[in-house]
Structure formats: C-alpha cells, structure tokens
Amino acid sequence: MASKNWITADTTFEEIAESYSYLIGPLLEMGIKVIVCGDVQWGTLGEEVKKLGLDLNEVLEKLNKIVEEKGGPEKGIGIKLNI
Q: Domain range for residue 43?
C-alpha cells in the first residue's frame, strides 16, 4: 500500500490540533508550536517551518510516518458543547 501524504506544507495548525492532535508532541520536539498561549497558532505548517529555517521535506516525512502508523486522522463524532 502506498503511503499517503496526510500532512502537507498547506496543512493548518487548526487542522493538526483538531484531527492530528497526537502530532503536537512530535512537533514540539522539532521546535514547532501548534498551541501558543492556549490558542491554536494561525497559519500553515509550511509557513512556520520556513520561518524556523527547518527542512520542510524532513518534517513532512516524519509527521506523515507517524500519521501512517496511527492510521490517519483521529475520528471524532463532532459534538461541541457550549457550557
């Protein structure tokens, strides 16, 4: 089975936080913050990688390997509670 690129340079931090929250730890280890001051950071992964001077291909390869091992995005039932 061919690997799918779940995460790309255009993946937003909001999408990572919502569908790939298990990537937050590995991203922090690479110096990439998804959550800043309790809120999801604005922008895309590619923009932040460029700003930090990291190797985009290396970051994407690592993240997509983790997603492949986890079986894709987290499945949620989409319930939001306003309490």
A: 13-68
